[in-house]
């Protein structure tokens, strides 16, 4: 858990308290509100007073199952890694002028010295610390700390909610970059949940002219057509095979959707796996080989926040439309359960409320 400290601040800004409220996952299915010390800053860090936190599927999975793969909740953990806020204090090496700035937080801390970091792939750093991934605490709390260069200034035109959802937008942008989507590309996306819709908006911003999206829920398909997709396909009744698209992005994790999506890709096309599903999936290997299809997974992102902020500010991506539930910090458990309700896309927790 977080540790106590006094904070560096400037005159005219509110005093940083010694303690903060946090919604803590005590164990699988058990959340509790606690008073904790405000985190201590390293010299290169800033203290962010959290404004908004989006609920991610991984948060829900930790709450419901107590683990994701090798990451096990064996100690109390603060969930939440999609966040925005305002800088309340800075470490000794950070310009005090940053205090008071509204920021979107990239919620990870790479080591910066390993082979992957030095190659520019800091998302693959073996020692990376990522919010709300055991044992690192997340943002269902009033204050968090992060390296100053991972707290990105946002313009007034970008809402707290949109700034928080830059994290899932970054997944979509990274997927589109890996898929080499460019002006004129034809793209298929499986899954019309939040990541699928975000990926569709990202593909459109990258210049894709035909964006197919498949799902089994008609309401989500209709929503996707209003916000990024150009064609909607019901996965229960319509086949995607033979579409001959340039790229397929799976945001569903469903094995059948992955197999069908691969068969929708034309020669030399790209397949990007984003959705979390089974550890092992049977793939049409001969199809991949005969068409020289390039297949890759996606693990988070690198260097996406500046582009994401620009796309939102320019109106090329709209994240506010995804917010379907708003919850106070004490209602974090309700926020984690909200996704099971009809019509829900994205729940947001507001620690200041």
Molecular structure report:
- The structure is a single chain.
- With 353 residues, the chain is of the alpha/beta class.
- It is built from ten helices and 20 strands.
- The strands form five sheets. Strands 3, 7, 8, 11, 12, 19 and 20 form a seven-stranded mixed sheet that branches. A six-stranded parallel sheet has the order 15-14-13-16-17-18, with helices on both faces.
- Strand 16, helix 7 and strand 17 form a beta-alpha-beta unit.
- Helix 4 packs across helix 5.
Order of helices and strands: EEEHEEEEEEHEEEHHEHEHEEHEHEHEHE
How would you sum up the global shape?
globular
Counting H and I runs of at least 4 residues, what is the number of helices? 10
Rg (C-alpha, Å): 20 Å
Chain-averaged pLDDT? 95
Question: Which regions have little confidence, pLDDT < 50, spanning 5+ residues?
Answer: 1-6
Report the count of strand segments: 20
Helices, strands, pairings?
Layout: E1 19-27, E2 30-37, E3 45-54, H1 57-65, E4 67-68, E5 71-72, E6 77-78, E7 82-90, E8 102-105, E9 108-109, H2 115-118, E10 129-130, E11 143-147, E12 151-153, H3 160-164, H4 166-178, E13 186-190, H5 194-205, E14 210-215, H6 218-226, E15 231-234, E16 245-250, H7 255-262, E17 265-273, H8 285-290, E18 294-297, H9 305-313, E19 323-328, H10 332-337, E20 346-350
Parallel strand pairs: 13-14, 13-16, 14-15, 16-17, 17-18, 19-20
Antiparallel strand pairs: 1-2, 1-6, 3-7, 3-11, 3-20, 4-5, 7-8, 8-12, 9-10
Helix pairs in contact: 4-5
Keywords, separated by commas or semicolons:
single chain, 353 residues, alpha/beta
């Amino acid at each position: 858990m977080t540790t106590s400290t006094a904070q560096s601040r400037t005159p005219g800004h509110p005093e940083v308290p010694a303690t903060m409220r946090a919604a803590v996952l005590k164990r699988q299915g058990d959340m509790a509100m606690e008073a904790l010390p405000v985190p201590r800053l390293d010299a290169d860090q800033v203290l962010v007073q959290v404004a908004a936190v989006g609920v991610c599927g991984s948060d829900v999975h930790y709450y419901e199952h107590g683990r994701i793969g090798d990451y096990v909740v064996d100690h109390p953990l603060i969930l939440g890694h999609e966040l925005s806020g305002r800088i309340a204090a800075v470490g000794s090496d950070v310009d005090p002028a940053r205090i008071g700035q509204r920021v979107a937080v990239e919620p990870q801390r790479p080591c910066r010295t390993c082979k992957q970091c030095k190659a520019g792939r800091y998302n693959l750093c073996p020692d990376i610390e990522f919010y709300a991934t055991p044992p690192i605490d997340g943002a269902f709390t009033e204050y968090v700390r992060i390296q100053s260069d991972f707290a990105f200034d946002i313009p007034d035109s970008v809402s707290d909610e949109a700034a928080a959802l830059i994290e899932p937008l970054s997944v979509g942008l990274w997927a589109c970059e890996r898929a080499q989507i460019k002006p004129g590309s034809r793209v298929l996306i499986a899954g019309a949940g939040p990541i699928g819709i975000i990926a569709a908006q990202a593909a459109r911003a990258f210049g894709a002219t035909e964006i197919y999206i498949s799902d089994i829920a008609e309401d989500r398909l209709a929503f996707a057509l209003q916000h990024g997709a150009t064609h909607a396909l019901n996965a229960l009744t319509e086949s995607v095979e033979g579409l001959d698209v340039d790229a397929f992005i799976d945001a569903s994790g469903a094995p059948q959707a992955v197999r069908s999506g691969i068969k929708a890709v034309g020669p030399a096309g790209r397949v990007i796996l984003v959705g979390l599903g089974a550890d092992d999936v049977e793939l049409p290997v001969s199809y991949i080989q005969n068409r020289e299809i390039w297949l890759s997974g996606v693990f988070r992102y690198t260097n996406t926040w500046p582009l994401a902020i620009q796309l939102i500010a320019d109106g090329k991506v709209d994240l506010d439309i995804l917010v379907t539930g708003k919850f106070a910090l004490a209602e974090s458990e309700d926020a984690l359960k909200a996704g099971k309700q009809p019509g829900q896309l994205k729940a947001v927790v507001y620690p200041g409320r």
